[in-house]
């Protein structure tokens, strides 16, 4: 296994997602990275769905883009797009490499503001959560009229993996 590690993406919820059926949508989230593709379940008839689902992908290098997309499930036609966003994990990985440990839950290590350079809808924080370094992000979806998705990312070292430190 030549992966650096695993990234766990907790897909929490969607906010004000686009309407693709008559007056609502049946949204699900797909995360792609290289040839990997993982997805959440479909939440029927809900533009503010709560998925609270964990998706896990291998990270082979830090330059491969991680793209999160939302689709409306349709029964008889191709699923409609409801926007996408790029998940930038570089600032989080830089924080991990600092090797911070043993800080109390709730301590914020870094904060990032939304800008034209990222897909953030509001301030995003890296902090400790049950002893693990995590980053909470509210992603503003692109290529769509509206919608945001809340996620949390967490790095998992892989036994026998290359890790981040070499
Ligand atoms: Ca539908």
TrEMBL record:
<comment type="similarity">
    <text>Belongs to the plant CAR protein family.</text>
</comment>
<keyword id="KW-0539">Nucleus</keyword>
<protein>
    <submittedName>
        <fullName>Putative Ca2+-dependent phospholipid-binding protein</fullName>
    </submittedName>
</protein>
<dbReference type="GO" id="GO:0008289">
    <property type="term" value="F:lipid binding"/>
</dbReference>
<dbReference type="GO" id="GO:0046872">
    <property type="term" value="F:metal ion binding"/>
</dbReference>
<feature type="domain" description="C2">
    <location>
        <begin position="1"/>
        <end position="105"/>
    </location>
</feature>
<dbReference type="InterPro" id="IPR000008">
    <property type="entry name" value="C2_dom"/>
</dbReference>
<keyword id="KW-0938">Abscisic acid signaling pathway</keyword>
<dbReference type="GO" id="GO:0009738">
    <property type="term" value="P:abscisic acid-activated signaling pathway"/>
</dbReference>
<dbReference type="InterPro" id="IPR035892">
    <property type="entry name" value="C2_domain_sf"/>
</dbReference>
<dbReference type="InterPro" id="IPR044562">
    <property type="entry name" value="CAR1-11"/>
</dbReference>
<keyword id="KW-1003">Cell membrane</keyword>
<dbReference type="Pfam" id="PF00168">
    <property type="entry name" value="C2"/>
</dbReference>
<keyword id="KW-0446">Lipid-binding</keyword>
<keyword id="KW-0479">Metal-binding</keyword>
<dbReference type="GO" id="GO:0005096">
    <property type="term" value="F:GTPase activator activity"/>
</dbReference>
<dbReference type="GO" id="GO:0005634">
    <property type="term" value="C:nucleus"/>
</dbReference>
<keyword id="KW-0343">GTPase activation</keyword>
<dbReference type="GO" id="GO:0005886">
    <property type="term" value="C:plasma membrane"/>
</dbReference>
<keyword id="KW-0472">Membrane</keyword>
<keyword id="KW-0106">Calcium</keyword>
């Amino acid at each position: 296994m030549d992966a650096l590690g695993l990234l766990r993406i907790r897909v929490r919820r969607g906010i004000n997602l686009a309407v693709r059926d008559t007056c609502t949508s049946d949204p699900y989230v797909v995360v792609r990275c290289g040839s990997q593709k993982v997805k959440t379940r479909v939440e029927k008839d809900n533009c503010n769905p709560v998925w609270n689902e964990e998706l896990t992908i291998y990270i082979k290098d830090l330059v491969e883009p991680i793209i999160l997309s939302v689709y409306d499930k349709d029964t008889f036609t191709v699923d409609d797009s409801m926007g996408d966003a790029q998940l930038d994990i570089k600032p989080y990985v830089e924080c991990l490499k600092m090797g911070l440990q043993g800080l109390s839950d709730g301590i914020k290590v870094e904060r990032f503001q939304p800008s034209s350079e990222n897909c953030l809808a509001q301030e995003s924080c890296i902090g400790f959560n049950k002893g693990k370094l995590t980053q909470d992000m509210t992603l503003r979806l692109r290529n769509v009229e509206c919608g945001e998705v809340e996620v949390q990312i967490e790095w998992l070292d892989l036994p026998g993996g290359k890790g981040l430190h070499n």
